[in-house]
Amino acid sequence: MSRIYLAVLTVFFYVLTSINAMAAGNISVSKTVGVDATAAIVWAKVKDFNALNTWHPAVAKDEILEGENNKPGAVRLLTLNDGGTINEELLSWNEDMMTFSYKIFESVLPVSDYEATLTVEATSNTSSKIIWSASFNAGKGADDQTARDTISGIFDAGLENLVNILINQ
Known about the structure:
This protein is of the alpha+beta class. 33% of the residues lie in helices and 38% in strands.
């Protein structure tokens, strides 16, 4: 009896973890960059869910379509410089922890099941680091490497431009 029970629990655990992995995506990208600016200064620049266009060079326009800015459930529409669009929903936003998470639910990007988190952490009294990480699956018609390279490039371009903005303030 206990063997059957253990086998059922094992199968249940495996199915549950497989479902969680699929929901979060099986590809991950994480980028971390240090900056000679306080965490408070960096957070002030990145914390506005409705202002990615103020620091990411690929985003021409950013607007809230539903909900309230910086409140979970808010939906933003990003219009890219080439005219493509991305619809994202804010999942969590925490001022004290200097972090927020969001998901893409419609996009020109070659990804699906995309969820990301952006976090700012102090590394000293005068410097900090920005961590931008995501998990996702390759979108329809795309392979894993194309999806990974696309998100990696987006993160690199955004973080590089953000650091340049912060250094030149």
